[in-house]
Design brief:
By secondary structure, the chain is α+β, with helices and mostly antiparallel strands. Helix content is about 20%, strand content about 30%. Helix 1 crosses helix 3, helix 2 packs across helix 3 and helix 2 packs across helix 4. The relative contact order is 0.14. Keywords: DNA-binding. InterPro entries: Cro/C1-type_HTH (IPR001387), Cupin_2 (IPR013096), Lambda_DNA-bd_dom_sf (IPR010982), RmlC-like_jellyroll (IPR014710), RmlC_Cupin_sf (IPR011051), TransReg_Diox_bact_type (IPR050807).
């Protein structure tokens, strides 16, 4: 485990909020000299002091103890996406747009070829879903009601509402989904 520089993190969060040391000191009700010493690594704050500072910065306390983010792990290259293909339907595929399913949000790209559908029957799942038609035209059946969506249209699907996608048109349809919690 690498050493975590709380002072450096404090400096970064303070600057991100466009606060001077004096402004943050006033918000946190600590002295500017204490903040300066913490930022320079001369003083170590108590957990209580760090709680007060984190509240003033509106940053969760645990963020001060997190290692820096490895941005390489956040990027999903177009040619490296995880694909979900269903054997019963070669005309339907999903690509995972997020690196994995470890978070609270899932993003997918669905491709529906002409004449294909997402499932035989309408299905519901826990959680909310937002869908955006990136290209093409598609039908969605929500609780038996047909809604036609064109390129650029979006729709919110509430939790547990049964729905089914269908492409009855002559061009591929590409739909981006954001789902929480992850479903696939």
């Amino acid at each position: 485990m690498s050493d975590i520089n709380i002072g450096q993190k404090l400096l970064e969060y303070r600057k991100a909020k466009n606060l001077t040391i004096r402004e943050l000191a006033e918000l946190a009700q600590v002295t500017p000299s204490l903040l300066s010493q913490i930022e320079r690594g001369i003083a170590n704050p108590s957990i209580n002091t760090l709680k007060i500072i984190s509240k003033a910065l509106q940053v969760p306390l645990f963020h001060f103890f997190m290692d820096s983010i490895n941005t390489d792990e956040l990027v999903v290259r177009a040619d490296e996406r995880k694909r979900l293909i269903f054997p019963q339907s070669k005309d339907l595929s999903y690509e995972l747009l997020c690196p994995d399913l470890s978070g609270k949000l899932e993003a997918l790209l669905m491709k529906l070829t002409p004449g294909s559908c997402s499932s035989e029957d309408a299905m519901g799942h826990e959680g909310e879903e937002i869908a955006f038609v990136l290209s093409g035209k598609t039908n969605i059946y929500i609780d038996g009601n047909l809604i036609i969506l064109d390129t650029g249209d979006s729709i919110k699907i509430p939790p547990n509402v049964k729905h089914k996608w269908e492409n009855s048109y002559d061009k591929d349809a590409h739909v981006i989904f954001a789902i929480t919690p992850p479903y696939f």
